[in-house]
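We append the chain.
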Amino acid sequence: MARRFVHEHLPYLLARASHALWRGFEPQVRAAGLNSLEWRVLATLYDGEPEGVGRLALEVLAKQPTVTKTLDRLQRQGWVQRSAHPEDARRSLVHITPAGRRQVAPLVEAAARHERRRLRELGAAGGVEMRVLRQQLALLVQRFDAVEDAGTSGV
């Protein structure tokens, strides 16, 4: 097969790698009655602090209006709750509810098992290479998020 630009383009390679890992897990998410965005929202809130809607949108890779609609559905299910931000009543914080945590807990465990299984298939069951890759990807995300945040704050 001929080499194409995308075969060396980092955003494309990261997206393809993400899709390859996600592909085998998606049926479990669907079987639990969730779509991929609902899964990302619940998984993000599962073991962390409440998030503002804007920050949550950034974390789950979606536009804020789309996340707001998803939160409406998840709130109707009783899986998330919104409350006023303590410092700015115009903003809200999103909390996962105990029911939401129960809904997503088996999927979080299944996602971890799925990832370990897929990495074992590559012969990379969590060794130094995977730790370094995770650190480098987290650093890449952190740096570009900081640049984007600075650009949107008028700096």
